Predict the structure of 2-oxoglutarate (2OG) and Fe(II)-dependent oxygenase superfamily protein.
Amino acid sequence: MWKGFMAGSGVPSLGRVKLSNLVPSEGLPSDSYKLSVQMLSQSLAQYSAAIIQFPTCDGALLRSGLDSARLYFLQRASYAPPDMIHTNDSHEWCKTSGYYADPHLWQEMYDYRPGLTPSEPGNTMEFPPAGLPDIFAILGKAARDILDAISFYLNLRSSPFTEILDNVPLRNHEISSSVLSVCCHARPSFQGAQHHSLTTQEDGQLVMFTDHDHQVDKSLISLVKSDRAGFHIRDFHGHWVLVDGDLGPQEVIIYPGLALYQATAGYISPAMHRTEITNLQGNMYGRCSLAFKLMPKSMTSLNCSEMRAAGHGVEAQFQLPIPVDDFMQRSHPTDQIFNRHSFPTFSFAAGQDGSMKPLMRRRKNTSRCKPLPPSKRLRLEAQRVLKERVQDIAEKKGIKLRFCNLKECESHIHALDSQCANIRMEIGWPPGVPFVHPHDLPNKAKIGFLEAYEPGWTATHDMELSLIEPGQVSQHSANCNCNISV
């Protein structure tokens, strides 16, 4: 279910979980359920995505849906009618239905929303892609099971988000908030695209994406199945990872959205994604995909009462409930979101929280005294960061820190399953560093610890680093290239 790093490529892979193992049952959780929930949660924490394996019969339905999508878009006109051009109007977030197009992004879509009859331009009769009600049903059920699995991992009560989800089945005259979108990128016969953006990948190749920067869904959970690779998600290191490069015929990519981020007080980070639409030369259909978004109901509110009831810390920005309709219509700066919980980008600027001011005063007061040796200063700095940074993260996540023995933990960081694996993952403990109190860490590991939790630390401590034995620094560099597979 879980694969480590791809041999030779250095690109991390996602956790693979069978959907059948995520279906909850009465009584005590089975070992397969607990293991699957753990794998799912760790994959979401590291890569903001996971791979879900559907039963064989559902895989056949998904493949037929993609085949139908290709034929549906192929028979459409080369230019989208003016009233079908996508305007990105957030006021209409729960009312989209039928065919839409965004020429600037070279994208077409057909939104299927139960309870809402699609309208076609000129009242002409057109056949929608086949199998949408059945595909909507299996993806919707899967999204709810995945949401319950995440709730189990967070120690929330059973089905805590039921009040903000659509009824199952819908009542009379109800319209589904969740939506199934059949998408097509870069159809050669679609001539409406006048502009497109180019982005340079890290390896220097030129890649075309559907957006200049990125996209973040406002859903709770999204599931995507495409007919060819090209879907990229940013992992917690800030690297763009191709997540659908080796999908099986019955496998689907799942990732969390902004609504789940809000409902879990920021504990589940939303996925930042973009879609590659190059390498389609000679393909007459473009890139087709099925995308299901589990959305909250418009007449409800997102609140963190369940998180508080489970003992999780809830920051001030999540204290007040937010009406769903307002949440969907407001903008959400993603730079603030992604700087909160991904450990490589923790932002603790001097003077913002006051924590650095006492340190500066202490240094001023002790400047006339005999300077501390480098190893002593390194140890005290690491202990301060543990108290002010790591402990704060652990308290907000409801984690009680219990450190390992140094000698034993050197084997833990290379093991797939260990007693400290979950804690290291939850608080973003730096890869390659044993999970022990910084007082007990060797200097080379203290440096890796400080670099993870104190951005810019190396740049401001060049003099101290130069006083540490060169062999220790070089050992640190080699040691921190190790990665934890959990």
